[in-house]
Amino acid sequence: MKHDRILILDFGSQYTQLIARRIREERVYSEIHPPTRSLDWIREWSPKGIILSGGPASVYDEGVPTMDPEILQLGVPVLGICYGMQIIAQLEGSEVAVGRREYGRAELSVAESDDLFHGFLPDESSQVWCSHADHVDQPPEGYRALASTETLPVAAFGHTERPIFGVQFHPEVAHTPRGEEIISNFLLRICECRPTWTAGAFIQESVERIQAAVGEGTAICGLSGGVDSSVAAALVHRAIGDRLTCIFVDNGLLRKHEREDVERTARKHMGVRLVVVDATDEFLVALDGIEEPEEKRRRIGHVFIDVFGRVAKEEGTGAGHLVQGTLYPD
């Protein structure tokens, strides 16, 4: 199944990953990309909507991230959050007011409860979280104010004809209790996304992609016992079965019973083929007399690569694919 997709353009916000998480909670697929993505790339990627994240900069600073103004002409719904709202205002010809820093809770009063604020009562007060220095006092021409706070005459705006919206607060954080409703309204009502991206769908699609990539070949995986490598190993094992070989390297620096826990989980619960190598002596020799933390990390990394490579040649059954699990932000 082809899922509807939301493109998040990241302007450096500390909350960008939270935006992606809120979208996932609505069972919609999203990806985070830099705002330097070209119009042609965005058209080809074909998002159902675009979210512009916040960021630490002022739109007036030199060398700050911005975006192609033609993005606002694509006909794709856009939601700007904090700095993202200010970018929209500036590109659309409105002045961004400078220098009134606000950090903390505020009470939002909704003027129009259609579209973005569907489900809110007119003039209903709702807590939101603000974290900004600049703000917008007047919406750009063709836009209307949708909400305000005591200090922000335009806490949210929307275009009168195009599906373009901006909010000066952060709906993605827990301190905005009804923020998930605002994000849901944008995704499901404005962008008309289908909520089809579930964990089950992700597993099935991942298995199919792995099977297509590996074919009749084999694979090896460095299994640490952590979430990342364990999930990767579980998906690949589901896809190709015993043609996956997992390698666990005991470096002699593990927590108590950690090796036994990994062996039990991998073999009994996951059912994978696991090779365990005790390389304690090699690691301890390499670390002997070393006190500087970064040098320790460097040596541990080098020894691990040497040990893993050696064992992979011995036990990897000529594997043509390497399985690696890592965090999404990395």
Give an overview in words.
- With 330 residues, the protein is an alpha/beta fold.
- The chain folds into 2 domains: 5-190, Class I glutamine amidotransferase (GATase) domain (Rossmann fold, 3-Layer(aba) Sandwich), CATH 3.40.50.880; 199-323, HUPs (Rossmann fold).
- The protein contains 9 helices and 13 strands.
- It has helices at 16-25, 39-45, 83-91, 179-190, 199-214, 227-240, 258-270, 280-287, 293-315; strands at 5-9, 29-33, 49-52, 78-81, 102-110, 125-132, 143-148, 156-159, 164-167, 219-222, 244-250, 273-278, 321-323.
- The chain has a 9-stranded mixed sheet, sandwiched between helices. A 4-stranded parallel sheet has the order 12-11-10-13, sandwiched between helices.
- Strand 11, helix 7 (258-270) and strand 12 form a beta-alpha-beta unit.
- Helix 5 (199-214) crosses helix 6 and helix 8 runs antiparallel to helix 9.
- It is elongated.
- The relative contact order is 0.11.
- The model has no long low-confidence stretch (mean pLDDT 93).
Helix content: 25-40%
Oligomer: single chain
Q: Approximately what portion of the residues adopt beta-strand conformation?
A: 15-25%
Number of strands: 13
Number of helices: 9
Order of adjacent strands in the largest pleated sheet: 2-1-3-4-9-8-7-5-6
Write down the CATH class of the largest domain: Alpha Beta
The span between the termini is 27 Å
Task: Extract low-pLDDT stretches.
Answer: none
**Computed Rg:** 25 Å
Mean pLDDT: 93
Q: Determine the CATH topology of the largest domain.
A: Rossmann fold
Kindly report the name of the CATH homologous superfamily of the largest domain. Answer: Class I glutamine amidotransferase (GATase) domain
Written as H for each helix and E for each strand, in order along the chain, the element string is EHEHEEHEEEEEHHEHEHEHHE
CATH architectural type of the largest domain = 3-Layer(aba) Sandwich
The major beta sheet can be summarized as: 9 strands, mixed
How many domains is the backbone divided into?
2
Structural class: alpha/beta
Q: Per the principal axes of the C-alpha atoms, what is the gross shape?
A: elongated
